[in-house]
Specification:
six-stranded mixed sheet, alpha/beta
């Protein structure tokens, strides 16, 4: 059975990527594919060099998929023991993976600037897919999901690559010219070896399945007839009562408690799916749980900030929290973000309303700090509670903005409207979420330009940075690029 091993590396000192979402979408695509029973998907989060070695030894993958950051000539970026970025050189990784060339058929490098590593690997591995330049998260994820959709349908690696390359443009995303397919010299195009059951066996399984369904239908009809007969004689079972709103609320609270207490990713994913089933009813309780979790986890941050600096800088605090260097990314807050993102559009309005309240709180904090500083009374004991409150607001802001990004395109219309909101924190969240989503680029750019004279310094600076990032990405997308797949010559693999 072909095994797909996914390595997802997003070190704490790099910008946050939605790698968990990419893994989930790949898994969902394989689960619904025609050959879903023929593939096994394994994933390793935050891999270190030794985790890479152990995972390949344990699972013997057919396809090795890496998602995260590429470093050009420095290779790819894994985690070190402290969770920080540790590049792995192309020559070292090629030498290591070459030891498994009998089992590893394909390496997929879903990271920016992966061409040097892809060319080094193509001498030892049959098929290597890599990104030639910088690619945004949405394009990279759409390309990867389409690639594995095609493999699940029984396509070869080359066919899967061609199908995946046209997937981003069909979804309205830029960067389709960046992926490159590198093939070892002398290797013909093929796909993973899928064990297909004989037609007679499949027909037999279908007949057995229909027989079971027919038997269960007959049993249900018989039970219904007995129930009707009992009801006509006055001895029927009492009608089934619908679950009351209070009972559903208690169930939601119980699931949230399980989500907060569980440390097992699989268990959290199962509980999260049950919460998603409650839809919009779960949103208010999840938002309250997020605020409670933020309140209980910021005390350590407050103490560290006080000991490191007595200077109160709310703008710098927000910038650090938005940089992705958070220790709770894989815990309850990360799971809550994923659940709310999957619930989708019903979460947008409650989150913007919560940000309206937080914006007023932030203004009050600033006024109190300014009064203390003006009166010369800003001692450490006066600023300590204010710093704690600002950190709670900052962490809640980061979490709520992450949810808006996870909701994706359904949130865009409300976010564009939020650029005109009277509360600066709402405008700031809209800017951060829209630039992360990136599409529709022209509408987002128009909204950001309108913030050029915003009275709030943070909003104005964030809009300027976001507009510069969009313009830079547009310039790269419009630059002429050779879109033809490279031919393999007698020199190095992958040279055009």
């Amino acid at each position: 059975m072909p095994t797909i091993l996914v390595l997802a590396a997003n070190p704490s000192d790099t910008r946050r990527l939605r790698l968990d979402r990419e893994i989930r979408d790949i898994e969902a695509g394989l689960r619904r594919s025609r050959h879903r029973e023929a593939f096994e998907l394994r994933s390793v989060l935050a891999p270190r060099a030794r985790d890479l070695r152990r995972a390949i030894l344990d699972h013997e993958p057919t396809v090795l998929h890496f998602c995260g950051y590429g470093a050009g000539d420095a290779g790819i970026v894994l985690d070190d023991d402290d969770g920080r970025a540790q590049p792995m050189a192309p020559a070292d990784l090629a030498a290591f993976l070459g030891l498994f060339e009998e089992t590893v058929e394909c390496v997929f490098l879903n990271a920016c600037y992966a061409t040097p590593l892809a060319e080094a690997l193509a001498w030892r591995i049959e098929v290597v897919v890599g990104m030639e330049g910088e690619v945004n998260d949405a394009t990279a994820s759409e390309f990867a999901v389409a690639f594995y959709d095609a493999l699940g349908a029984g396509k070869t690696y080359g066919q899967a690559f061609d199908i995946a390359r046209v997937a981003p443009p069909l979804a309205g995303l830029a960067g389709a010219a960046l992926p490159r397919l590198h093939r070892r010299p002398g290797v013909d195009d093929r796909g993973p070896s899928i064990e297909v059951r004989p037609r007679q066996e499949i027909q037999g399984a279908v007949r057995r399945r229909w027989w079971v369904m027919f038997s269960m239908t007959a049993l249900l009809l018989a039970m219904t007839a007995v129930r009707v007969w009992d009801g006509s004689t006055g001895g029927g079972a009492p009608p089934v009562e619908e679950t009351s709103p209070e009972e559903r609320r208690l169930e939601i609270l119980d699931l949230i408690l399980q989500l907060r207490q569980s440390e097992d990713p699989t268990a959290r994913r199962y509980v999260g799916e049950r919460l998603e089933g409650h839809g919009a009813e779960a949103v208010p309780e999840l938002l309250r749980a997020i605020r409670d979790e933020v309140g209980t986890t910021t005390d350590a941050m407050t103490e560290q900030a006080i000991t490191s600096s007595l200077r109160f800088d709310l703008g710098g605090l927000f910038a650090s929290l938005l940089s992705g260097q958070d220790p709770w990314r894989e815990g309850f807050l990360g799971s809550a973000v994923e659940v709310l993102g999957n619930i989708g559009e019903p979460t947008v309005t409650p989150i913007l309303e919560a940000l309206e309240e937080d914006s007023e709180k932030r203004d009050r904090i600033r006024e109190r700090v300014a009064a203390l500083q003006a009166g010369g009374q800003g001692t450490i004991f006066d600023l300590l509670p204010l710093l704690g409150e600002s950190q709670r607001l900052g962490m809640a802001f980061w979490t709520f903005t992450s949810v808006l990004v996870d909701v994706g395109r359904p949130a865009v219309p409300r976010l564009l409207d939020a650029l005109d909101a009277p509360q600066p924190l709402v405008r700031l969240a809209a800017v951060q979420a829209l630039v992360a989503l990136g599409e529709p680029r022209d509408e987002i750019a128009r909204g950001l330009r309108n913030l050029g004279n915003d009275p709030d310094d943070e909003v104005r600076m964030a809009a300027a940075r976001a507009l510069a990032a969009l313009d830079s990405e547009k310039s790269r997308a419009e630059a002429p690029v050779n879109v033809e797949a490279p031919e393999v010559g007698a020199g190095s693999p992958g040279d055009p």
